[in-house]
């Protein structure tokens, strides 16, 4: 692709109550980000690039974050073209926390201190009971990386903290030298990361669109 834009969904109900996983909706603040993001995307991407792509996960919070980005039909080279038709990917769903899905970190630590300590010790390799590890996420993002390589236009991805850490690590191999670093990469809310691919990895600019 020409450019890859990465962002987390806007603030969700679970972000507010500090629960992990789940499939909650956006809060009012999250809605505000969805509006700010759409305005930014229209002005900075869609005006000159009507063929740009929008990818989300299958979870409500990413779909809701993308919903103000218009996807009307325009005529392009004499053909009707759906602008920014969103594509929902299971491969972009957040890391699955298995039996701990829907709990806070404090609740997990209280319920099972051993598991909690194991994750702290090896965040990359640790697999949640009946859930996933970051290494599992690396594997399922292979599909996304392949599909990204085939795209000739800009791609905007609205996904999740864990997913974007790994995607960023993959794409920024010029800077992220060790997979161990990936689970610790900071991906704040309300921020868009603009990646420009070059022969050796990517350069990256971060823009905060909402306080
Ligand atoms: O808290 C938001 C969230 O996206 C959770 O759904 C997910 O489990 C977590 O972040 C991933 O971050 P970490 O690997 O640091 O727990």
Automatic annotation (TrEMBL):
One of its GO terms (cellular component) is chloroplast. It is found in: Plastid, Chloroplast. Substrate binds at residues 8-15, 61. It comes from the Eukaryota. The active site is at residues 9, 94. The keyword ATP-binding applies. One of its GO terms (biological process) is fructose metabolic process. Keywords: ATP-binding, Nucleotide-binding. Its main location: plastid. GO terms for molecular function: 6-phosphofructo-2-kinase activity; ATP binding; fructose-2,6-bisphosphate 2-phosphatase activity. This is 6-phosphofructo-2-kinase domain-containing protein.
């Amino acid at each position: 692709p020409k450019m890859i834009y990465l962002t987390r969904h806007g603030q969700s109900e679970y972000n507010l109550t500090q629960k992990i996983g789940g499939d909650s909706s956006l809060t009012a603040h999250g809605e505000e980000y969805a509006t700010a993001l759409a305005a930014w995307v229209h002005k900075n991407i869609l005006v000159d690039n009507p063929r740009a792509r929008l990818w989300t996960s299958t979870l409500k919070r990413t779909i809701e974050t993308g919903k103000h980005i218009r996807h009307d039909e325009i005529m392009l080279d004499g053909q009707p073209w759906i602008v920014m038709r969103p594509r929902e990917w299971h491969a972009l769903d957040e890391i699955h926390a298995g039996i701990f899905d829907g709990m806070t970190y404090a609740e997990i630590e209280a319920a099972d201190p051993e598991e909690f300590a194991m994750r702290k010790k090896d965040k990359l390799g640790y697999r949640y009971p009946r859930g996933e590890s970051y290494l599992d996420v690396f594997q399922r993002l292979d599909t996304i990386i392949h599909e990204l390589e085939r795209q000739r236009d800009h791609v905007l991805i609205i996904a999740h903290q864990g997913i974007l850490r790994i995607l960023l690590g993959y794409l920024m191999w010029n800077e992220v030298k060790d997979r161990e670093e990936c689970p610790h990469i900071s991906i704040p809310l309300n921020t868009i990361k603009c990646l420009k691919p070059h022969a050796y990895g990517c350069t990256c600019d971060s823009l905060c669109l909402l306080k």
